[in-house]
């Protein structure tokens, strides 16, 4: 089977749009089905049905592939292609009838993300990217905003579900907020990252994401000219992801690094 990024992207975009329509139809009247890491980390019936649809469509088209999904875990294949799926990123927004939620599908080939789709059904926007092929929103090429000084930057962030982590995230935010133009907590990491790609925000940082939250969107934002990384030159990890254009990236990094924004408590002196 073809593993060309453009071919994987076409399939992912079709599946993400169909999944987005299914989720959008089911949003009204949705309730909580289950909880995960904490009572506020919820799963709806739609998280599960949408992921099932995505798995079925991807594996029908490409039976040898692997799939990692937020709700259903790993299914292994031997083709060298792995799909990373978040059926609804922004589940709390989805539950409350809010707009910022997305279906996120990334295709990894031999361990590298080569194609990514983030579909935002409420806005009828589909973000797409292939490695080296640029980023698009519903077909229009994306380019991030030019760098601005940190105090002029609109910065998106998000919070984890554990109370211990949140308490320290609030401490970090206490220092960040007076240093920037303003903060947005959109409620979907995938949409936040795409908003930086789109020029609707200048930067984004968050501690504690899972692979499925950011795999597709981090390719999209990088292909729009944004630098994505962690602290001290390391790549982005679940400990911390920072996304901003070069220049602003370094300024935000230098604010977050001494605060220990990649941990759940203050850094130890020395
Ligand atoms: C969450 C969202 C949220 C972010 C959390 C994620 P979910 O994903 O992306 O914006 O702050 O860290 O867990 O649970 O809605 O798929």
Automatic annotation (TrEMBL):
Catalyzed reaction equations: L-histidinol phosphate + H2O = L-histidinol + phosphate; a myo-inositol phosphate + H2O = myo-inositol + phosphate
PROSITE patterns: IMP_1
Gene Ontology molecular function, alphabetical: histidinol-phosphatase activity; inositol monophosphate 1-phosphatase activity; metal ion binding
Record-listed Mg(2+) 2 binding positions: 89
Alphabetic keyword roster: Hydrolase, Magnesium, Metal-binding
Pathway where this protein functions: Amino-acid biosynthesis; L-histidine biosynthesis; L-histidine from 5-phospho-alpha-D-ribose 1-diphosphate: step 8/9
GO biological process assignments: inositol metabolic process; signal transduction
Gene3D superfamilies: 3.40.190.80, Fructose-1,6-Bisphosphatase, subunit A, domain 1
Cofactors that this protein relies on: Mg(2+)
Domain of life of the source: Bacteria
EC numbers: 3.1.3.25
InterPro entries associated with the record: IMPase, Inositol_monoP_metal-BS, Inositol_monophosphatase-like, Inositol_monophosphatase_SuhB
Residues that, per the record, bind Mg(2+) 1: 70, 86, 88, 213
One Pfam family cited in the UniProt record for this chain: Inositol_P
Family: Belongs to the inositol monophosphatase superfamily.
Function: Catalyzes the dephosphorylation of histidinol-phosphate to histidinol, the direct precursor of histidine.
Name of the featured protein: Inositol-1-monophosphatase
